[in-house]
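Q: Hi! First time doing this. I have a protein sequence and I read that you can turn it into a structure. Is that right? Here it is:
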Amino acid sequence: MKLQTVSIFVDDQQHALEFYTGTLGFEVAADIPMGEHRWLTVVEAGKPDATQISLEPKAHPAAGAYADALLEDGIPCCVMAVDDVQAEYDRLVAEGVTFTQPPSNLGPVTVAVLDDTCGNLLQIAQFHG
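A: Yes, that's right. Below is the predicted 3D structure, encoded as structure tokens:
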């Protein structure tokens, strides 16, 4: 069994697509019109078989309430692994990304938390040895 797709609930799919591909560096895996919204997924660059992230619209009331509550409480909706948190933090700050938590060494992991500009916080993490 393998995790195929996870959802991140976003305020605006087009804006999310631009941020997740243009700023974070993901690639489009699927972009299929589905009425008012799209089946829109991104995947780690160069790894088409990696777990896809569905940039899911907050159309369902429960999805919006869930995402809004996490954001209000300062809780990241997911963790994304990076090789070097400080380097990624520096790169993203230079691109204008807002962080709610700068790199923090927590022993076995160094983490930072950023605002995805789409209604979510994301944690980036570098796991140590």
